[in-house]
Amino acid sequence: MKTVKEGEIRRREILDVARELFVTKGYDHTSVNDILKIVDIAKGTFYYYFASKEEVLEAIILDIVEEGARRAEIVVKDQSIPLLNRIMMAIMAQAPEFEGSDEIKEELHKVENAKLERLYLKAMLKRMTPVLQEPVLECIKEGIAHMEYPTECIETILLLGHMMFDCDTFEWKMEEYPQKIQAFLCHAERMLGTKEGELNGFLQMFGQIP
Amino acid sequence: MKTVKEGEIRRREILDVARELFVTKGYDHTSVNDILKIVDIAKGTFYYYFASKEEVLEAIILDIVEEGARRAEIVVKDQSIPLLNRIMMAIMAQAPEFEGSDEIKEELHKVENAKLERLYLKAMLKRMTPVLQEPVLECIKEGIAHMEYPTECIETILLLGHMMFDCDTFEWKMEEYPQKIQAFLCHAERMLGTKEGELNGFLQMFGQIP
DNA sequence: AGTAGCATCGACTGACGGTCGATAGAGGTG
DNA sequence: CACCTCTATCGACCGTCAGTCGATGCTACT
Prior knowledge:
0% strand; 210 residues; DNA-binding; 10 helices; mainly alpha
């Protein structure tokens, strides 16, 4: 039995199902056959749209990163939020964790998904750094922040936020988080060269991670 | 034809060959058969010593981390080096990169090795943080450094050093490195709360990374 | 009705991780 | 020396998986 659909629609179907599976079962533990069963297509169709399983992964990661970057861009443009807050809120808005997508939350970070994670991180840094460039430079101009290496500072804070809270790099226990978040904010303040305690307001916001 | 060897020797043979292959070809692209061919044993023998290919990987990573930590411990104990320098030198001594083992250098960080890398990072942080605890606390006591979260500061600097220079997270070009290293040292100074420029002496040392 | 070509099918392939029952050899015992 | 025991070793075999390919159904245009 053959169901013919327009190319772009099939492609999206495959992408959506694969994303769901990669994120819930892990990339390695999702077989192409798993995807085929759910989308209800034959193997040939899958490989008609994608050259390999890995190509699907890369496309999905670009999607996730792009979605995050869009959310961040909205925050950055919002003049009603104080400048420094905008930067931190953009970082939080960008992380897939904070979005409703609970699916991603738990599963993105298991060791099995190291490949997914690594590709995500690289793509995210490349996409997000320019987004934060402008507000950070403005912070410097306004004297709220003081630093010699703005680009590197952004890269570093994005990296740290991701490794500490998005992935479970340190395998912290639940009760350690408040302390770790405070430390993170303190380090961010120091790198940005803001007044001490300027970022304190973010403690509660991060509190929702558990 | 059967060659019988004492258990521990066989185990080491497998471990050594596997390490060489994982590091040069990548974990995913090394098959158990590749290992068997070189060690010249049958499959059953391999699985007599290890429950899975992954168990071999974990054992290798523990080895690598332990070797690095030993080098770091020697540096930390060396009273002839100024305290602050000891900390940074220990971090550098620990990284597999800076050791003679060029093999590891290039290959550890390709995306194919994401799993190896991720496991390495977790194990390294767990092993290295306590090593640096003591000298950092002493820095604080002596007034060379000022911080509220010493443990978290160590974790952060270890993580940053690894992600920036050991893995190729940012895919920097050769000519960008001097700037990135300077920025890293600047951020480390700020997080540690030292005098500005205290870490300048490390610029050349890092210079050997290419 | 005819046809061009896009989208779909699914049997097949080769490689890989892992299992298992058989067995060779070393060392001990009488 | 004959017998036994236990450990290290062997390699055929299994199920699974990513990826291939020639055949073919379906659509749209002539």
